[in-house]
């Protein structure tokens, strides 16, 4: 396995170069064969995506008529810039990294290229190999796929087995949130700079609202009732939000209001926290000996439950799509773009990552066949089965106890949620920072949600 300690620097340089080139008319065509295509990809700067950038020269060597440009962005920045570009018909990106939140909505709007015909004409691509829940989540109203998954995830609880043993604690097979809070309190050691648990607190609908939204579901809460009446000040939501904020303030990491997925990953992998509730995709980082100090010491438990055994898992996939503006550039541009997307989401790519960068780095969850590769099965034995079980159990059509008019486990599947979720997250983050009470945060959040709900009530009245 090749050493990768310098990867962040390499990826950063690649990102800067990509941005510089994309701002220059005609740049990047020098030295390319006549008729060659430049494909610009907006991508999220998570570790698995950085791996794809690192391995992309392999694709260019196999496809000398294509030059790739990556615009690598943080999660919050990627969501904002990609949405703005696609929604306004911008043509700066030939491919975009989106999720199961955007895909069905954008397909309905006609903003994306139907990928079913492209998959059908690609030998060995095997779209039936995609994890069914992920495949369904990335399909449009017509049942066709409009993005293809790079990886899929749910959520689980990661914990330090060695610290539990030292404290005489045993993780239950199916922990509750009350039990998790008790463990966190016991394992917090401020003198040793160790938190009992790491929970996201960074503003963003895809940051703090992911675990908090899932916890709200597990406490029986919901964003709206069936008539689109906002429910963010309901007893269930109040209980969940107060529980979350109290737990992270009492036993969570320092600087929690600025901690997202990446920051919690660093804290846990460096041994600074005893537990971490977050995305299943994090396991690959924690079990990578070149990235983590806790390899072999981590246990993986199902997402904790709230009232009546309600789970707090979620369903999410970072996927790749082709905006309709790429099709307007001609079929040759679509073909060049799809050749890269199909390479990055293929079965051979999974094996290449394992052989070149280590089996714990293989993007999880997207394909069933990944869990049939002997080397991957061995490398992921501590977390692979739990990841599959969590993804397969997730049902974004039935997110919580009571009926709702929307889909989504850690999001509300409506266009307004990007803004609504972000606004609510800012209020929650402020409560975590101690700038206001949780009840004050929820009162303001309720006001935001009511404005959105009223528009849907009016639509119902008009119809």
Automatic annotation (TrEMBL):
<keyword id="KW-0732">Signal</keyword>
<protein>
    <submittedName>
        <fullName>Sorbitol/mannitol transport system substrate-binding protein</fullName>
    </submittedName>
</protein>
<dbReference type="Pfam" id="PF01547">
    <property type="entry name" value="SBP_bac_1"/>
</dbReference>
<dbReference type="InterPro" id="IPR006059">
    <property type="entry name" value="SBP"/>
</dbReference>
<feature type="signal peptide">
    <location>
        <begin position="1"/>
        <end position="27"/>
    </location>
</feature>
<dbReference type="InterPro" id="IPR050490">
    <property type="entry name" value="Bact_solute-bd_prot1"/>
</dbReference>
